[in-house]
Design goal:
alpha/beta, seven-stranded mixed β-sheet, Aspartate Aminotransferase, domain 1, 37% helix, four-stranded mixed β-sheet, Aspartate Aminotransferase, domain 2, 13 helices
Length: 398
């Protein structure tokens, strides 16, 4: 091995930034060299309550001292508790716990298809999706997302996921047929570039699915668990509830937790043996998920998220105006904001990192700013001052 070759034994599947973080607290991360960063990436919208939130640390530590894993061969009071709270605060009647967003989507696909199979329409297997979507990295999830970059080299595309242009209502109506089982959409596209779906479109989807006897599936893996100032993004919209919904990321606050939520009707086909998971819903994950809800469902917490989001959005709009050579505009909802760039979004992410501010690139040349829900106004102000400095430096560099 030459001196210039990498010596890591890891798969070379990630384009990692040259940073090594050894600890975090709240909205801040610290490298092994002692450098401090403001974290407006939040583990890609995962660290919903920041780093090392005391309540989460206490819940995980307490559970770790008693029981880690027994599998789903036995009853789980911890799962029952978290499922009850999720259902009490959503459209859902049933919950299946997973380890990740991709697994939650797999459960959603199977739930929709199985119901049609059991109710006399086994041909209904197609799940209509939209361009720009991202639903995970399993073979089914990349087929649902439809991004050629993610599918290349992995054999034929998994069948059953016809895709239509984002926002094309006529194409959607034309796509629904005798083989359609469901329509799948993110209320706000995350990886696709922080693109909210207009409220009237989600209401229209609900009506269309009802008209054709098919399911409406939401992917709220990134936009759920308080990210928009409601527990779930679709809850801003009256008359747009789904039949099935996948969540993950924020519900674990940094611990791997996901879930598929469904109505009683939609979940009725998922009987013993129809689906399974070894680690999903383990006591450690359930303890953390319950602890996250303890905080997010506290009186006034989501209202504070809404207030901070307004402040952040206003300041971002000012920055977009003052740096119009580099920034085209601002998009997003709540604490899920994106800068639509004229310059390369990767260059902007790198410039922000130079100012010790972490962000995340997204599709459509967007930079995501997705801080913990616990971020304070002064931390938002500090972060956006860094954005100002970074963009100013980029302009001067030409």
């Amino acid at each position: 091995m030459s001196s210039g070759e990498k010596t890591t034994q890891l798969f070379d599947a990630f384009a990692r930034a040259p940073l090594h973080f050894e600890r975090g607290e709240g909205v801040r991360l610290y490298t092994s060299e002692g450098d401090e960063f403001l974290d407006f990436a939040a583990g890609i919208a995962v660290n919903s309550l920041g780093h090392c939130h005391p309540h989460l640390v206490e819940a995980l530590t307490k559970q770790a001292e008693t029981l880690w894993h027994v599998s789903n061969l036995y009853e789980s009071p911890q799962q029952e508790s978290l499922a009850r709270r999720l259902c009490d605060n959503s459209f859902a009647d049933r919950v299946f716990f997973t380890n990740s967003g991709s697994e939650s989507m797999e459960c959603a696909f199977k739930t929709a298809r199985r119901w049609h199979h059991d109710n006399g329409a086994p041909q209904r297997v197609d799940i209509i999706t939209f361009e720009g979507a991202f639903h995970g990295r399993t073979l089914a999830a990349i087929a649902a997302g439809g991004n050629e970059k993610y599918m290349t080299g992995f054999g034929p595309k998994a069948p059953g996921f016809p895709q239509i242009p984002f926002g094309d209502h006529e194409a959607l109506k034309a796509a629904i047929g005798e083989t359609t089982a469901a329509v799948l959409i993110e209320p706000i596209q995350g990886e696709g570039g922080i693109r909210p779906v207009p409220h009237q479109c989600l209401r229209g989807l609900r009506d269309l699915c009802d008209e054709h006897g098919i399911f409406l599936i939401y992917d709220e893996v990134q936009c759920g668990i308080g990210r928009t100032g409601k527990l779930f993004a679709h809850q801003w919209i009256e008359g747009a509830e789904p039949d099935i919904m996948a969540i993950a990321k924020g519900i674990g606050g940094g611990f791997p937790v996901g879930a598929c939520l469904a109505t009683e009707k939609a979940a009725s086909g998922m009987q013993p043996g129809s689906h399974g998971t070894t680690y999903g819903g383990n006591p450690l994950a359930m303890a953390v998920g319950n602890a996250v809800l303890d905080i997010v469902l506290e009186d006034g917490f989501l209202e504070k998220v809404q207030d901070r989001a307004i402040f952040m959005r206003q300041r971002l709009a000012e920055l977009a105006d003052s740096h119009s050579e580099l920034i085209e505009g601002v998009r997003g909802e709540g604490l899920m904001q994106g800068l639509k760039c004229k310059a390369s979004n990767l260059d902007v992410v790198a410039a922000l990192r130079e100012e010790r501010l972490l962000s995340v690139p997204a599709g459509d040349n967007v930079v995501r700013l997705i801080p913990p829900l616990t971020v304070e106004d002064d931390e938002i102000r500090e972060a956006l001052d860094k954005v100002d400095v970074a963009l100013t430096r980029m302009k001067k560099a030409g």
